Amino acid sequence: MRRPVVACMLAGVMCAGCAGLFGRMDRVAATPSVVPAPARMDWRYGAFTITPDTALRYARDAAGAREAAEFLAAALRPVTGYALPVKAGRGWFASGASDVFFAAPAAVEAIPREGYTLRADHKGAVIAAADPAGYFYGVQTLRQLLPNAVFGGEAGTNGVWQIAGVEIEDAPRFQWRGVLLDECRHFFGKAYVFRLLDQMALHKLNTFHWHLTDDQGWRIAIEKYPRLMQVASKRPGSVTPGDRKSQDDKPYGPFSYTRQEIREIVAYAKARHIRVVPEIEMPGHARAALAAYPELSCRGEPLEPRVMWGVEEEVYCAGNDQTLLFLEGVLEEVCSLFDSPFIHLGGDECPKTRWKACPKCQARMKQYGLKDEHELQSWFVRHFDQYLAKKGRRLIGWDEILEGGLAPGAAVMSWRGMKGGQAAVAMGHDVVMTPMEHCYLDFRQFSGYDGYEYIGGLLPLKQVYAFDPCKGIPAYQEAHVLGGQANLWSEYIWGQKDAEWKLYPRLCALAEAVWSPAGRRDFTAFSSRMERHVDRLARLGINAAPLAPPYAAQWKAGEMSNDWSVKTWDIGNWLDKAGAYSVHFTYTHGRHRFDMRKLRILEDGAVVASDDKANLTGGINAVAKYVMRLPAPRDPNKKYLLQAEVRGDGGGDSNGRIDIEYQGK
């Protein structure tokens, strides 16, 4: 976003030297590592330092400025040990050189919604914004401009809290920047939700999509229907970790959020400029609710909440008026607890088997002239679209709600690729893009084994970063693209440790994809900034995965000599599908290079892939590269070894790593 730079960032104040504000400036430090990357950032002369005398001042007429100042003070006081008083300011000239001033924007500044400007130099630091969210995001950027010790952990600043001179203009590309947390398969609890909301705020994410009901559990208290808490919030067991075909037979739950806990979470999110969008699944993914109220199903038979993952045949009976009244009662209370303009009603993966055999559903179809069960689902969705509209809310659902016709006011969340969202936009509907190939963080992030269990798929960091919600959308229709979000489905996520490993660093890439201008995004630059940002994550106690995939194997000094010998490495965890695998040997240190030849992949001792080529790593050749083809998928009951003849050229002082990555069929 570009604005006139002849005016100062402060309301009504003209500062010397503003002309050419974004011109050539003396560089005093390395490029700041801000994630997500600001829309525009340039250097200024000098540096800004927080000292024991620093005050945080705010313009009285700037909405949200005082709250942002107080948030910053609360974040900085524990690590700096400074008082950092928050005071109403009388203008920038009344502030000291070590003060942070939250200013009202100048009349000539057209700062977009959620946008801000930030300037820091030897004269002080100034943040201006047009709304409270903008001030808050300016604070998040200022925190990242400071030494990483501001995020906790070992200080290591020598008592100097300094920001190199910088000028930033920033605003988000999209208005919906979200994260979905599934609490039905596994429950995380209020403390973790607070923690996730703080992490979202740091990355300027503003929508918490809270998946609260599904076949395996109902997690929201509804006063009108107490059996949802008593019956639907627990299940007789779960899928056994590491064995997807078996159950552990351990009762799970009851787990659910009380109305008071939900109010606390909504308030906590609102203070961080995050809206909470609840998801109440219908007409499918409803077995937990049907266990509590089986009369709402087509067959009316007693049920238990589902234990195994996957798609469930038992769904709400669309021909039963009591089903409509029940769900209206649920939504009545949901709307009283959440202030989001959007209510997510699911609409995905609804088998029609029960409807086809249900007299009530068939009668409903006949009553309204519906030609098939897809149109019955569309009728069902339209009913609740109209219900929510009367309450001033908007329905949003997964892209299956397109089948059979889309409700007039509905927004679409496109998960089965981008095509559903593209079709909805062509029809004039708003969309949120969240395609599996870019946004499903329950997919594996490395082609090899990293110690965690995933639902499947492969979604590396670079592929998340490549996400563009507007891909395939004509420019004149891009306004219908509200934004995008990451989804964390919890079938194979048992708690905070698993969740954070799968979220980070990929959520950082998603945050940049939905915040930063498309033309400014560059994966190499992002990766460079992330080298510093991962230290921030570590200081916050986040169990983040590494930026680079863990290596499959390694060799160490003393394991070889100048003579050829045979060496093997266990690589079973790094093989999965049939197809081509890159096998790279990378020398890291030592006095001798590493030579190899006659590579083999052994399956229980039998050769299944081979390459006799001689190669080396070290010296002039940094990486020795091979491609090996696995003829069949890995058999989990067999042992897989990589074998090679190796030697150290001149001796055995060589160290390095072996990386294996699936390349495709």
What does this structure look like?
The chain is of the alpha/beta class and 665 residues long. The chain has 3 domains: 40-170, Chitobiase, domain 2 (2-Layer Sandwich); 179-518, Glycosidases (TIM Barrel); 553-664, Jelly Rolls. It contains 16 helices and 30 strands. Strands 8-9-14-15-16-17-18-21 form an 8-stranded parallel barrel, surrounded by 6 helices. It has a 7-stranded mixed sheet with strand order 1-7-5-6-4-2-3, with helices on one face. Strands 23, 25, 26, 27 and 29 form a 5-stranded antiparallel sheet that branches. A hairpin with a 2-residue loop joins strand 10 and strand 11 (217-218). Helix 3 (190-202) runs parallel beside helix 5. The longest helix is centred in the middle third of the chain and has 18 residues, at 373-390. The protein is globular. The chain starts with 39 loop residues before the first strand and ends with a strand.
What proportion of the residues form beta strands (DSSP E)?
25-35%
**CATH superfamily grouping of the largest domain:** Glycosidases
Shape type: globular
N-to-C terminal Cα separation, in Å?
44 Å
Give the count of helical stretches: 16
CATH fold group of the largest domain: TIM Barrel
**How would you write the strand order of the largest sheet?**
8-9-14-15-16-17-18-21
